[in-house]
Amino acid sequence: MKYRFLTAFLLLVLPALPVVAQQTEKRYLSGTGNDNTVNWQFYCTAGQNSGKWTTIPVPSNWELQGFGKYNYGFAKDSARGKEQGLYKHEFQVPASWKGKRINLVFEGAMTDTDVKINGQSAGETHQGSYYAFKYDISALLKYGSGNLLEATVSKHSANASVNEAERKGDFWIFGGIFRPVYLEILPAEHIAHIAIDAKANGTFSAQVQLNTKVKATNVLAQIYTLSGQKVGAPFTAKTGNENQFVTLTKSIPNPLLWTSETPNRYKVEFRLLQAGKPVHVLSRYFGFRTVEVKQRDGIYVNGTKIKLKGVNRHSFWPSSGRALSKKLSVLDVNLMKDMNMNAVRMSHYPPDDHFLDVCDSLGLYVFDELAGWHGHYDTPTGTKRLKELITHDVNHPSVIFWINGNEGGHNYDLDPLFAKEDIQKRHVIHAWEDFGGFDTQHYREYNYGIGNYNHGHSMTLPTEFLHGLYDGGHGAGLEDYWEAMWHDPLAAGGFLWDFSDEGVVRTDRNGAIDTDGNRGADGIVGPYREKEGSFFTVKEVWSPIKLERREITPTFDGNFPVENRYYFTNTGQCSFTGKLTRVNGPYTLEKPLEKTFTVSAPNLKPFEKGALKAALPADWKDYDFLYITATDPHKRELFTWSFPISLPNKIASSIIKTEGGNEVVLTEADSLYTITANNIHLSFNKQTGILKQVANSAGTIPFTNGPVLQEGVNNFKNFTHRKDGKAIILESTFDRKTSYNTLQWTIYPSGWVKMRVRYFPDGYFTMMDGVNFSFPEASMKGVKWMGKGPYRVWKNRMKGGALGVWSKAYNNTETGETPFVYPEFKGYHANMYWCRFEATGNPFAVVTENEDVFFRLFTPAWKTDQWHNYEPIFPSGDISFMQGISSIGTKTQRNETTGPMGMKNIFYDYEKEPARAKELTLFFDFSGR
């Protein structure tokens, strides 16, 4: 009865009491991140700049500061080196702190760390790189005067299992104190730790660990909104023995729930009371959400089955290694959200605390990982690191799964400890194993599985798939995989490998960026987050608003079939806008004419289909392209889809001028036809019809040696010439057996030149169909085109671009290699209407009246992988105009195993009749304008 009366009294009186309790205070000894550092004294024992005392910024990795040796995990000496960093830092402690609890906290140091305060050991050596650890140094400090912190950090561990788990992985191995170091100042009696479980039904439970000597009597808690409004009444629990745990519970009716789409958070404040007065106040942010795994079914968040659209992320920045900042965490999470991802895997170790904070606030599901890569921690060491992992990350609503190691680096003895340490009992998986109901095999082929995987009974969740070496993987193949995942009840989604290129600045190589060959060049974005082409493909394929393909014909009624692929969001919560564009031709710099229109969205629940209704203006047919933009409830663009109104034949007719100029003159000399029209001089081979030379009044245009058929027989024969009005036509003669492919040139008095090729691909399956020309790469300055851009495409990565007029200067970029200049110049480009090539001294233009034409610019100097899976195939010649292009593979899969889009082109015509041939028509303007 006395306890009940006291509790009721506290609930009434305490909210009105002045708050005199101490909140946990942080006093940073280092900086807070790579953008805010503090210099400490430093001595490196081996490698660059070793053997002398100097200074180093903390936090940092010492290699990036010019010390030691760079090691990638596969290096033979990466786990045997004796490299150490000796740190010293002096700091003041006020006399007023005496009698308080002072913890020295390291958020991360790699890897073995020995700490002394004023010459005395602070505690046992900490082994393991990515985990926060602390020492109680209250008894070691000199209060009211200066103190000396000394830390010896060994790059490689004395514990062989730590090296197996952390230092022999497929990633860069760094040394140093790479996360912040600070003092945690607490009252003698204090709240030591809080673990929260807040469920979707509003049930709130918190385990509170106390450091008391029975002077404190109660713990009081109050939940708040982020704006500071109280949620429900305060609730309390009575304290008891020293260092005890108490549990506080509360039920909140109808809370706003946390999901990746609705990252609603609350704050809870805990007060440790002594004689009715608070002596310590501690706050935590949390979210109400329930995550369930239903075996042979799926992952459920708040009762709704979800699929994960995720990516793997290393904690990495090229100029600072694994020393990061909250600003970079915000950057990375926003980039992931911009790609319409809803999940991220922490590969292969726990991240910075601020990264999880940002995932909480912006909304990403997180798979948090105990380190292990083909090797694992021994059980005593792994038990300690597991406890540190869960203690540090337990309250983040974004963390929905734990991963016990990667690709064989699993210590099975640790599996039961996750549930023991985690109040939320999150599910545990092993990356690359069939474990815990999930088959997480990496890099499986699209059609893989007989009695297992897609044809088995476990839920499929590849924790790595579509390895993004250079420009392969990621967006290339994703649409095939994702549509299969979307419609498979046992598919729970997956995680692409990986987010950013691990290109590190080499202080020992004059600042060059090094990806260790093909090992680190596998990001969707570059080292400094430069967007590659797959970024936009992923954005479209994973858009939760899916617009179905449709043709914009003269009878178009403004309806766009749409599917809601959100899990918790109604389409009515999103906004949609429309735009029409009328573009200009290749010779003008004027901006396109634009007109906007409204788009009405239906109220579609998740997984429902319906139609967007565009209120098109009466003159919409006078425009060339139509765009629909979808924006989510948080004002983030989901995607902008583009649709052609004007087809290439209409645009071509507005550009091509056949009249004007003088009479077309043809002469014959030896093996050449020479034709002159309006100061354009052309030479053709009389036997093959191949263009041999082009010139105008400004000089020669080195566009020659075409058309040469790709994967077709150049059997153009028996050329004749004739007049057609004022034009001259050169054409080959069709013969079913010996010259079934035909070529026709038409030279108009205006100087425009028309090429018409009718051809049969040389085989049922082809990699590429079209024609090639020669052009010296050194003479190319840039290109401007009308079509889809600005990034290049592959057969299995067609999405992500937009129709419009684009231009880019020549570059020699190889994706994932220095210089990281995007979009790349070389490669295939889709949906060509026209191109204007900026050549040295003499530009020229090419126009087509055909739909679905690709133009190809040169051949990148491709690197490859040891299995030769990645290698893309390009046509011969330098500039090509194609009607079928090749796909691209990944580091781990050949292109044809990544789904139907990765397979070869198919063209069937047994009889080889002219009416069944492919036809490509191009118009050339060699006037130099």
TrEMBL record:
Record-annotated Glycoside hydrolase family 2 catalytic domain positions: 291-510
Top EC class of this enzyme: hydrolase
GO biological processes: lactose catabolic process
Stored InterPro entries: B-gal_small/dom_5, Bact_Beta-galactosidase, Beta-gal/glucu_dom_sf, Gal_mutarotase_sf_dom, Galactose-bd-like_sf, GH, GH-type_carb-bd, Glyco_hydro_2
GO molecular function, one term: beta-galactosidase activity
Keyword Hydrolase part of the UniProt annotation: yes
Signal peptide coordinates: 1-21
Domain Glycosyl hydrolases family 2 sugar binding: residue ranges: 54-185
Cofactor: Ca(2+)
EC number: 3.2.1.23
Pfam families attached to this UniProt entry: Bgal_small_N, Glyco_hydro_2, Glyco_hydro_2_C, Glyco_hydro_2_N
Glycoside hydrolase family 2 immunoglobulin-like beta-sandwich domain segment(s): 190-289
Boundaries of every Beta galactosidase small chain/ domain copy: 722-841
Keyword set, alphabetical order: Calcium, Glycosidase, Hydrolase, Signal
GO cellular component: beta-galactosidase complex
Catalytic activity entry: Hydrolysis of terminal non-reducing beta-D-galactose residues in beta-D-galactosides
Complex and partners: Monomer.
Similarity section: Belongs to the glycosyl hydrolase 2 family.
This protein's name: beta-galactosidase
Biological source species: Spirosoma aureum
